[in-house]
Amino acid sequence: EKGGYDWFMRKEIYEQPRAVADTLLGRYDESSRLVLDEMRITENELRSIDKIVVIACGTAFYAGMVAKYAIEHWTRIPCEVELASEFRYRDPIVGPTTLVVAISQSGETADTLMAIRHAQEQKARVLAVCNTNGSTIPREADAVIYTHAGPEIGVASTKGFLTQLVACYLLGLYLAQVRGTKFGDEIAATMAELQAMPAAITEVLEAIGPVLDLAGEFADAPSVLFLGRHVGYPVALEGALKLKELAYIHAEGFAAGELKHGPIALLEDALPVFAVVPPKGRDQLHAKVLSNLQEVRARGARTIVLAEHDDTDVVPYADVLIRLPKVSTLLQPLVATVPLQVFACELATRKGHDVDQPRNLAKSVTVE
Ligand code: M6R
């Protein structure tokens, strides 16, 4: 049932183009309006929402961080992201006009479930983003967007994460449609970009060779850092989490702008530092990440740079270059995460670790 792969995780990484395509399937009606099947919250109710709170754990939390960037940008509804395990213990401000979005691959994570129950006690509406039909979280939620990743067996979330991103983008676009913050053709243009993502992810997987070589090169690194900005920041956090849970290596993800506020002191000779470079756009993020890379290299660390394939500006700052397809900034996590998943999987298997069942971890964490 591993379909010719040695590990479920590797199989699931390679299933991602299909999983993303399936999650996008059937989201349009005949009049080109976005439809979300199990959105049992009415359009009127969605128009009265004045705040969104995303709650999730682990990798799903990082999907939530990306969701915040997309949802606020497209809908202008204030959106917070909170670790589910923290949520109910701090007397959060939620009520009938709050939409709580609970992201959980398994649908059984106790921290997330308890947070949902707390939100419902405060009369908030709860939407679940979930991969498991009939699990507890979508059963208790008012509405659900199912991700169609298929069963995820590996403890490390891979296709679960990418499909959670897709579901969050769909939610953002749907809210924009309902509330009229984006025109139909703008929504259609982003949907077309999303439809092109399976091919873009396939492109990343087909050019993965250099990432496999990297795993050999850094197999003995005691620590690895990951930098990103904007939606590249949660990608950095996800890259670090994958490495921790699979390879048992200390790893940290940082918002690149924070480097100078402390983490720069960690930099030393030969330390591997991954950086997700945002597409060149109207803002200055691209240039700012390049100047971060310059600071990193000046201290002897080794830079592994993920950047668009025609981005020549990065060349002087990269010890190793990993090329990404050209996609818009908000969607970049769908391609930028993939090499980091492969790196962690490859490094861990080279060390002889069981990547499907890493030590001390369970696939769904059903205790608080
Ligand atoms: O099933 P869930 O999405 O609720 O699980 C949340 C986390 O436990 C999960 O993402 C965990 O962090 C993974 N092991 C990450 O690879």
Automatic annotation (TrEMBL):
What this protein catalyses is:
D-fructose 6-phosphate + L-glutamine = D-glucosamine 6-phosphate + L-glutamate
Q: What GO MF terms are annotated?
A: glutamine-fructose-6-phosphate transaminase (isomerizing) activity
The EC number(s) given in the record are: 2.6.1.16
UniProt KW Nucleotide-binding keyword: no
Q: Please give the first and last residues shown and the length of the full protein.
A: 247 to 614 of 614
Protein's job: Catalyzes the first step in hexosamine metabolism, converting fructose-6P into glucosamine-6P using glutamine as a nitrogen source.
Name of the encoding gene: glmS
Keyword annotations: Aminotransferase, Cytoplasm, Glutamine amidotransferase, Repeat, Transferase
Q: Where in the cell is it found?
A: Cytoplasm
Domain SIS residue range list? 42-181, 214-358
Tell me what this protein is called.
Glutamine--fructose-6-phosphate aminotransferase [isomerizing]
